[in-house]
Amino acid sequence: MNALPFDLRIAPCKSPQSRPAKGARASASAAKAAICLLLVAAWPVRAGSLAEALEQAWSRHPQSAAEAARQAEAKARGDLAAGLTPGPPTLSISNRSDRFDSNRGQREWEAEVAVPLWLPGQRSAHQAQARSAAAEIDARKLELRLQIAGELREAWWQLAAARQASDLAARRTETARTLEADVRRRFQAGELPRVDANLAQGEFLAARAEELEASSAWLAAEQAWHKLTGATAPAMLDEAPPPATPTVPDAHPQLAAAAASVHAARDKLRVAEATRSDAPELALRLVRERGDFSERYAHQIGVKFTMPLDSGPRVRQETASALADLMQAESLLSTIRQRLQLDADRARDELAVAERQLDIARQRRMLAADTLQLAQKSFALGEADLATLLRARAGAQDVEGAYSRSQLARSAAQSRLHQALGVLP
Question: Is 311 exposed, middle or buried (0-12, 13-18, 19+ CB in 10 A)?
Fold first, then answer.
């Protein structure tokens, strides 16, 4: 197979009318035609590239629906931290009179507007926490997109392998059909025994069964891709070669998300340390009162300042909780960094092994092709029997399949290295 592994074309689907409708051949053709019709009619949209497929998969993901709400939440948190007060003002109104007792006209109205105040350093701590929380939301979004990209990459290479197996099975069927027709003609002419005709027909039927099985696997892989993206898969996947960097970059989405969690936990600790008590309040009081009906209303204006006392146990609890979150986030960041580096090293080693295996498969392919050519000439001249030709043909087909799988394995290893290094399409 000379095409690149990421340029795998779908084998053409033929209608039952294009082949003789006899026995197993007719039923097999009808089954394949039905599969092709399902593939053509099921999904009218095509993804042109992995980047477009990622956008389609992201739009279908449940968490993407809440992305706008999370952004709005982060903005509201930032607006609250940027306010002049840690909370909204409160208004209270009270009234007192002797109407239900002596009813001498005693009246008193009191209105109070109270405003909470920031503690020293508390406002800046809340602003930093709001910024880090917004940054963590953005980082988690990229981390989720990388996870979806990994699922898409694996689904693509499973689909590419299914397409390739279907193509190889279809070519094997065509070859077996040609051989079966030639052997049947020579058997009818008396040149070959009946056992050779039976062998050729058995080879053709086995090839047809394998082709149907491969077509079914191909349909299942297409459905898995459609489940992720809502579209049919592209005809080819074009990714640049993996970068040569030996270490995982700090911009890796998983690493960036873990680092953002550390910053958010650190700012949460700052808020806990700055909040030594409840917010103090500054209140403006307005009083309107009289003693009885003969007096005129008098007005009084006052200011009240409320300072809650320090709550030691509560402050220690919140500080200890924030410190525990920070220590856990830092430990998780270190663990993720080590794991990602190990994953990248393993992916790079797998790529090197896949490239060596591809070189060996290429050499085996050349030898098998030469052996098959010699066996065909020997059979045509009557120097070798059909069993020898079938063995040579089966060996060549196995080697061709191994070569194609090696091509896929090399390209899949490159894609997994992209994933390990955090490269988004």
Answer: middle
Residue written as token pair 């020293």: 120
Nearest-angstrom CA–CA distance, 375 and 386: 9
Distance CA 82, CA 363 (A): 69
Q: Would you place residue 277 in the very low, low, confident or very high pLDDT band (cuts 50, 70, 90)?
A: confident
CA end-to-end distance (rounded Å), the chain: 27
| Cα distance between residue 232 and residue 223, in whole Å | 8
| Farthest CA pair distance, the chain | 140
10 Å Cβ neighbour count for 219?
A: 18
**Closest by CA position to 4, among listed 394, 418, 404:** 404
User: How far is it, in rounded angstroms, from Cα 261 to Cα 140?
Assistant: 9
**E strand spans, 179-336:** 281-290, 298-306
Sequential DSSP letters for 321-385 = HHHHHHHHHHHHHHHHHHHHHHHHHHHHHHHHHHHHHHHHHHHHHHHHHHHHHHHHHHHHTTSS-
Q: Phi-psi bin for 298: left (phi > 0), alpha (psi -120 to 50), beta?
A: beta
Contacting residues for 272 by C-beta, under 8 A, at least 6 apart: 315, 318, 319, 321, 322
Q: Which pairs from 61-70 meet CB under 8 Å and 24+ separation?
A: 61/144, 61/148, 63/144, 67/141, 70/137
**pTM for the model:** 0.73
Dump pLDDT digits (tens) for 391-416. 888 888 888 888 988 988 898 898 89
CA distances to 142, 191, 246, 359 from 126, rounded to whole Å, are 25, 93, 39, 59
Show the tokens assigned to 375: 């066996």
Count of beta carbons in the 10 Å neighbourhood of residue 187: 18
Return all residues near 45 (Cβ < 8 A) that are at least 6 apart: 56, 230, 231, 232
State both tokens at 60: 């279908």
How do residues 37-50 score in pLDDT, each as one tens digit?
333 333 334 445 78
User: In the numeric block, which tokens belong to residue 95?
Assistant: 């009234």
Read off the amino acid at residue 118. Answer: W
pLDDT at 36: 41
Contacts of 271 (CB under 8 A, 6+ apart): 122, 125, 126, 129, 322
Taking only Cα atoms into account, the Rg of the chain, rounded to an integer number of angstroms, comes to: 38
Query: Given this model, what pLDDT does residue 243 score?
Result: 66
